[in-house]
Amino acid sequence: MKKYKIIFWVTTGIIFLFEGVMPAFTSQTEMAKEGIRHLGYPDYFGVMLTVFKVLGALALIIPRIPGRIKEWAYAGFAFDFIAAFVSNWAVDGLTPSAFFPLVFVGILVLSYVNFHKLQQND
């Protein structure tokens, strides 16, 4: 049980930092806006994505949020990471940086699996 809690909180914390905190503070920087434009998306897409990322990260990290909402957050992040991989691949080719979002898919899967292990033990 303790092992599942540690893995869950470490992986969920990583997702929270990279998908909740960082976008909240950096989404309006010129570098972030240029990154969205580089992939062919309009500026408003970056704003919308930031709002959903922050809300999803909060849903994962706040213990009182119902499990059903957390499931939607996990699904949203999975779509986000896969879409980021595909977008980078389509625009820049199969470069090493295109695979970076897939690392987060792995972290997300670890969080998700351990979330369910903790739910079973409650």
Query: Multimeric state of these chains?
Result: single chain
Largest sheet: none
Span between N and C termini? 10 Å
Low-confidence stretches: none
* Count of separate structural domains: 1
- Share of helix, binned: over 70%
Can you describe this structure in just a few lines?
The chain is 83% helix and 0% strand.
Secondary structure topology:
Blueprint: H1 2-26, H2 30-38, H3 43-61, H4 67-92, H5 100-121
Helix pairs in contact: 1-3, 1-5, 3-4, 4-5
Question: Can you describe this structure?
Answer:
It is built from five helices and no strands. The chain is an all-alpha fold and 122 residues long. The chain has one domain. The mean pLDDT is 95.
Question: Which short descriptors sum up this protein?
Answer:
122 residues; mainly alpha; globular
